[in-house]
Model the fold of this input.
Amino acid sequence: MKISCDFCWRLCSLSEGQTGICGVRQHQAGRVVTLNWGSVVALGVDRAEKKPLYHFHPGHRTLSFALFGCNFRCSFCQNYTISQQEFFSQREGTIMEPSALVALALERNTPSISFTYSEPLVWQDYVVEVALLAKEAGLLTIMVTNGSFSEAALKRLIPLIDAFNIDLKGDEAFYKQVCQGSARPVLASIAAIVESGRHLEVTTMVTEQHHTPVVMELLAAQLFERQVQVWHLSRYFPHYQSSDRQTSERYLSHVIEMARHTGIQHVYPGNSTLDSTTICPGCRSPLITRGGMHAPHTTPLLVDGTCQRCNTHLYGHFPP
Ligand code: SF4
Done:
């Protein structure tokens, strides 16, 4: 008999002993189990800006970790050694109980835990266990994901995650050709998370070959329609199987200007030396400045998330 996994939009129907496309979920004796449950393969402390999250407790340090696995096959993957099965099948991580991760976050004094680096959707039973304990301990939770949730996964995770960063990788053709995925579940998840009121920032890695002005206008319109407030446009550098050339600062600057004109409040450059200051949407005053690896600087104009010059409230969560 086959049974289905409901962790992502693929809803793989698995026979006894069969493993899903992610390589980590398997049908065993009438239930689907996560083969690498608790096997941590990447662990570190990052600033929230690295996720990237610019409007969620700026500058705070977050305990970040991953298990193996992903349900996409992006040819440009930046973390392919921990996301793609052919690279991780012979490797093992360090088994950590959820309580050990929470204890580590408390010991290192990080106010949040981030599920990141690979695709947390495919190890979401572990995400749920860690997140429940993290909440009990008063920690915030962050999920960096490709956004291809199933409906069940959205219901399961939205109540447990305080902030999401979702990749919108391109148009439907790009997802099909380059990622072996689909934009549809990603756009549906973005809409559901915005509607839930949870914090959301979206990231798109911009190539010059695929992310033409026409495609970028389409993505901007899709995000604007779904009321996304923060969009990170990141410069592409050649990686893994992709031979596309590096994206120029000039091209990135062009698409950022275009995106700002579509009405999305905050559009930021990533992997770039372009200016990433947060500007007040009301009076254009600079509210948060950022530079290189340094912690962001909040100007005296931003108090408790509100611009003191024009009283506009900035999207996001800011310490008083
Ligand atoms: S996580 Fe997604 S890809 Fe993996 S088995 Fe479940 S439905 Fe399939």
Observations:
- The pocket of iron/sulfur cluster is lined by residues 5, 7-8, 10-12, 20-22, 25, 71, 122 (CB under 6 Å).
